[in-house]
Design goal:
By secondary structure, this protein is mainly alpha-helical. The protein is built from 24 helices and ten strands.
């Protein structure tokens, strides 16, 4: 990792220039900023954080050498979680940005793939930035102020976020393995040369460090100034609620149920559940009341055909979507009660207008829906959907297509905000954690609060055993958080495989999905673990081919 980290630091020295204030540009060379300048005062350190914020969603070649325009970081990594496990289903054969290869498990299982490589280096890039700030503040001689504590809290939170992402993708799941001996990822604290390459720490060591970082973050935030201002931009800044939300995720993933429940309750305070209108508005902005944390994508950032919504939203005007509308598992959609307004964002009866559809049923000539008895009725239904949701003429429709994720400007290529954490997730974490502790009443209360806001006829008392309650909680995870990327980590935590054929089938095409149509559960299938990048093995003397997952 020595060579790679050296490159990452050089890029770090340039990232703040992209997003810094005009007066700072006037007195700093535009090709670099020294580490000493970056740590000289609070304003400069905030510029470092601004670079990290933007690096979450910028194209990866702007973050570090060797990056690639085909990955705009979290625009890709967030929906990838649902793409991998078949929650976000492809209806046709399209492979822009290797999105089909990811779905077919031909990316994360290859050590030379962009997906395996760039996720690794992006997360370590975040760690490098965090280390620089943490080491500079903890070991420096700056006067402690609320603003300095706020910066330090964000740095610790970012490091915890990056390590949790790394260990959950490149290590065996905590609950299905042996954390004290399972290999995790290299644990690094350095921010200045000479850099020292490190071997893989154990999963337990990484989890322990995440816990320490989150406690340090919460302590710093408690003495910090808090988020400046409000609106979408403010929620791109991390705060104590984000730290508690990550703590809830971390604790849930390792079976520390009480900590998970408590942290989830703390994280969601002040983020009221969405109204029906807000829930159906498209999940395209941080200004939604539930959003605890998300990237506020600035207009100058040219993600466009690299964006989250290009890959996942059926209103985006891009070939990945126009030719391949994304659909939801029909088993899930059919199970949503009619009294639950979330069902409205899925269209089971949308005509299959794509003559290249993977199921071979596209076009009027292959229509199987008895609702459309004539071609005119079929075409009118297609036109009605396009008019209602702002689709362009080239957009295809497909049964069970979704309109949960919608562009703020439908039919455009505008990149919208990327949401990472909502209060709904925190209710689900609390419910799951309490169910796992066999606190049936506590789990029911958390679940009821969330689902009553969605379903006017919800009766949580129907789920009065641990087994039935956990089944219902899993269902609510899938419905509420669909398309927001939680599928991969949920499957690992629950040790669930993939079976598109079971119980009448998901609607995915076996010909298109190939071996990913059915996958054994993570505890018996190591293909769930991402491959370490071959470039890392080649560059790091402490990691060899024998360390490969």
């Amino acid at each position: 990792m020595k060579t790679r980290i050296k490159y990452l630091l050089l890029v770090f020295l340039m990232i703040p220039i992209i997003s810094c204030q005009e007066d700072f540009l006037e007195r700093t060379p535009t090709d670099a900023i020294s580490a000493s300048d970056a740590l000289a005062n609070e304003d400069n350190m905030q510029l470092v954080l601004n670079g990290v914020h933007r690096g979450l969603y910028s194209q990866s070649q702007t973050v570090f050498p060797g990056g690639n325009t085909a990955r705009a970081n979290n625009h890709y990594w967030v929906p990838m979680g649902d793409n991998l496990v078949g929650d976000l289903i492809h209806s046709a054969n399209a492979n822009n940005l290797s999105w089909r290869d990811v779905m077919q498990w031909n990316e994360h299982t290859q050590p030379t793939s962009l997906t395996s490589s760039l996720l690794w280096y992006h997360r370590y890039n975040i760690i490098l930035h965090a280390n620089l700030l943490i080491n500079g503040i903890e070991n420096g001689n700056l006067t402690e102020t609320p603003k300095l504590n706020y910066i330090l809290g964000q740095a610790y939170t970012y490091r915890a976020y990056a390590y949790l992402s790394l260990v959950q993708h490149y290590g065996r799941g905590y609950l299905i393995g042996n954390p004290s001996t399972d290999p995790g990822v290299p644990l690094l604290f350095s921010s200045e040369s000479p850099f020292t390459s490190q071997p893989r720490s154990t999963v337990q060591e990484i989890y322990d460090q995440i816990g320490l970082d989150l406690e340090s973050a919460i302590d710093a935030f408690e003495n910090g100034s808090g988020r400046p201002g409000g609106g979408a931009e403010a929620k791109s800044q991390l705060n104590i609620d984000v730290a508690n939300g990550l703590k809830a995720r971390w604790a849930l993933s390792k079976g520390d149920w009480q900590t998970a429940a408590d942290a989830a309750v703390a994280a969601r305070q002040g983020y009221p559940l969405l109204s029906e209108g807000a829930w159906k508005s498209g999940f395209n902005t941080n200004t939604l009341s539930e959003v605890i944390w998300g990237s506020n994508v600035i207009a100058a950032e040219t993600t466009f055909f690299r964006s989250y919504f290009y890959l996942a939203s059926n209103t985006f005007n891009g070939s990945q979507i126009r030719n391949n509308p994304k659909i939801a598992d029909r088993r899930m959609v059919d199970a949503i009660p009619d009294t639950d307004y979330r069902k409205d964002v899925f269209l089971p009866d949308a005509p299959n207008s794509n003559t290249s559809a993977a199921n071979g049923e596209g076009g009027w000539d292959n229509n199987t829906n008895p609702l459309y008895t004539t071609e005119d009725e079929f075409d009118a239904a297609v036109a009605s959907i396009k008019a209602e949701y702002g689709l362009v003429s080239g957009h295809n429709t497909h049964p069970y297509m979704h309109f949960k994720l919608k562009n703020a400007n439908p039919g455009s290529i505008d990149p919208d905000d990327v949401i990472y954490m909502r209060s709904s997730e925190m209710y689900l974490i609390e419910a799951e954690a309490k169910a796992m502790m066999n606190d049936i009443g506590g789990a029911q209360t958390a679940l009821e609060t969330l689902v009553n806001a969605r379903d006017s006829n919800y009766n949580v008392n129907a789920f009065n055993t641990q087994t039935s309650l956990m089944d219902e909680i899993k269902f609510q995870w899938r419905v509420e958080m669909w398309g927001e990327g939680f599928g991969y980590t949920n499957h690992i935590r629950w040790d669930e495989g993939i079976d598109h054929a079971a119980n009448g089938g998901s609607g995915a095409s076996q010909v298109l999905y190939q071996e990913s149509f059915q996958r054994e559960r993570p505890s018996v299938n190591d293909d769930w673990i991402f491959k370490i990048p071959q470039a890392e093995i080649d560059a790091n003397p402490n990691i060899s081919s024998s360390d490969q997952n």
